[in-house]
Amino acid sequence: MKFVWFKKWGWAHRPASAVGWLLTFFVAFLIVGVFRAVDRHSHSGSDTLIGVFPWAWIFLATLEWVASKTSE
């Protein structure tokens, strides 16, 4: 018995269950938190983007990896 949290959607995955949506919202919450923390100490828009990008990439890559392992 395999639990399907995400479904393939083009080259990405979309949530297909409550757990998938919960993980997606959790990752979005983490990215917004990092954005607010970095933006608080940045001097320009590019400083903010440069500070947020590595964290957002890690969070989104991890979410995509989990989605690929829990999809049909």
Write up this protein.
The structure is a single chain. The protein has about 70 residues and is mainly alpha-helical. It has a domain at about 25-70. It has 2 helices and 2 strands; from the N terminus they run ββαα. A two-stranded antiparallel sheet has the order 1-2. Strand 1 (about 5-10) and strand 2 form a beta hairpin. Helix 1 (about 20-40) packs antiparallel against helix 2 (about 45-70). It is elongated and about 45 Å long.
Q: Any chance you could write out the topology, listing elements then pairs?
A:
Layout: E1 6-9, E2 12-15, H1 18-41, H2 45-69
Antiparallel strand pairs: 1-2
Write a concise keyword list for the protein shown above:
2 helices, two-stranded antiparallel ribbon, elongated, 2 strands, single chain, about 70 residues, mainly alpha
